[in-house]
Amino acid sequence: MPLSRRALATAAVIAVVLPLSACGSGDDTGGSSDASGKVEGDITFQTWNLRANFKSYFEGVIAGFEKKYPDAHVKWVDQPAENYADKISADAAGGTLPDVVNVSPDLVAPLAKAGLALDLDKSASKYKKEYLPGAWASHQIPGVKGTYAFPWYLNTGPLFYNKALFEKAGLSPDQPPKTYDDLFADALKISDRTDGKVATLANVPTIEDFGRYGVPLMNKEGTGFTFNDAKGVELLTKYKELYKVKALDPQALTATPESSGRKFLTEAVAMNPGSALDLGNFKKQAPHLYKNIGITDQITSTGHVNMYVMGVMVNSRTKHTPAAVAFAHYVTDAEHQMSFAKKVAIFPSTAGSLEDPYFTKEDGTDETRVRVAAAKSLKTAVNYTPVLFSDQMKTELGNSVARALQGKQSPQEALDAAVKACDRLLQQQG
Amino acid sequence: MATSTVTRSQGPGRPDRPGPLGRLGRLARPGGAAGRTPPPAVRVRRQLVTSPWLFAAPGLLITAVFILYPFVSTVINSFTDRRTLLPGHYVGLANFRELLHDDMFWIGLRNSTVYVLGVVPALVILPLLLALLVQRNIPGITFFRSAFYTPVVASVVVVGLIWVWLLDERGLVNSLLEAVGVGKVGFLSDQWLLLFSAMTVTVWKGLGYYMIIYLAALANVPRELHEAAAVDGAGAVRRFLTVTVPAVRSTMVLVAALSSVAAFKVFSEVYLMAGPNGGPAGEDTTLVMLVQRTGTGLSGRVGYASALSLVVFVVAVVLMLLVLRADRREES
What is the phi/psi pair of residue A329, to 5°? Predict the structure, then answer.
């Protein structure tokens, strides 16, 4: 039967409108917050750049879960490290967020505010006592009641330094700086003794640096930023001095973690923060650097290093809440966190795990020395990054710091501007 | 035409064999459902109307879903305070008022404009000279044509990273400059040098593409014109200015229009070379980078980014109209 013009037009409109109806910010149907039912159904678990190195570990965890709960099936997806937040936001906006998602506290905050993260204080409070109190609280958001992710692994992240460059500048290769005052003194010496050819750092201070210097970052209510106080200005003034004498790499104002890593790899800078995975990279790509690598704790003037917290969030719209909660708990319980920690240099967030001899006894090797020291520092570590500090706020702070280092604004003016911009963004977040 | 086909298909000796419009032929027979079915001529006319639409439907559908809908959605969002995860409310012209007071918007507008002014003249003139160079049929010229075109097919990310390595403080270019006594140049740390370096990459990458367009235009320039000019004593430069340029003028306008819109919307080159913050203190941010930075992420301000996108769209259209208008005025 031939199509009439009207029928064709109707078909075209339906064809256009139907797919579009799937767009938007998702519907409100789906998930229940009750996690007490039978553990069954197909769920999706998303990790953050873990497949390349830990494929067999996660396959084993999933197999174990499916054996324990035969009616549940887990599909594992992994996303690359870059643009992870964009991937999550696209999924969240499109209504395709996986049931169980690997997040960090700053990622979970907007998801919780949008009602996309399950409140574990309501749905999984029975598990709360299994975790370190500080770790459980790390996924709580100022102004929002509840806890929105299971705490997973913790890390402090080592600070690497190039012993050969330290020696070249007449500094002891076995005495790296511990506090910011030590760092500034050593950086000025390295710059002076190498005629500005070797910089100490490749990046400008971040919000964590302000925290570790002892600058109060936010008010107690979590309604405004405070890093423009006298201490913050002092830190930025010292960094300005470093930049002027090239103790800070000239390209630091446009640096990314990747570009800073490259600078360290090519021995253009003497110190760089990193992770345990970097050691393998140094060994393969820069044998000379690897031979001279020094590992120390993060620089801190507060006595507390920065703690990076990973979490596992349950999508509040999941169709299988009991299975999703059970799996998120399974991945993060003491047994699995411990077995994961034995595969890579991370630390469990479960209560009592850090007392395990694995984290307290040295066997004389560098590896155990670093591990025991890191586990010890973790007990008093602080997650300095404010949960509400968004990517846009990081950009505002970065730009203000750059203006101060270039001398376009005084450190006080620059930090005042950054606080004003971040406060405005905070208000807009609602 | 349809009638004659029907007649042929019902010719002697082939009573049941349908022709190209066999189904139509069967329906046309007396005793068919003629009372309820429209006459064949009407049905053919209808099919002539609907068939082109059916052929065009996939293309139209893709256009509607991936161009029309996002465009309409952007216009609507620009009047709201929508965020990535939160539906917005109507805020009238507030986003547009805000961008007038946003320093970063003016920095973005300045940089995008400087980019157009720097890149477009180079992309109009240099590929033409390159096309003249490789137009000659001499042995091995195909290799050079391919070589000049290679940057076009290379990934912009790969190209950007290679240029970052070249222009780094310890890169090849700075090592050479140091060797000849010039000293290190902050290609990737100075605000203006960074923008200039990104422009260089854009021009280098675009040369081959526009060269191909010019080669096609140059093939249409009659050789006799050059010969006549040469006989009249015109040198190479004179022939270029009085014969070649007028002959490819419309192509030059096309290249100017295409490259100015592309330059105004620049993102990848600046993002790769100046970093996600857009250079020191964000001073190299372009408008499209600002759209990306403002509108993406879990806390993205979709409404404000949409307003910025609309401004980019309007400026790009105005830019193209200006180029075309200038061409028309010159023609008249």
Answer: -70, -40
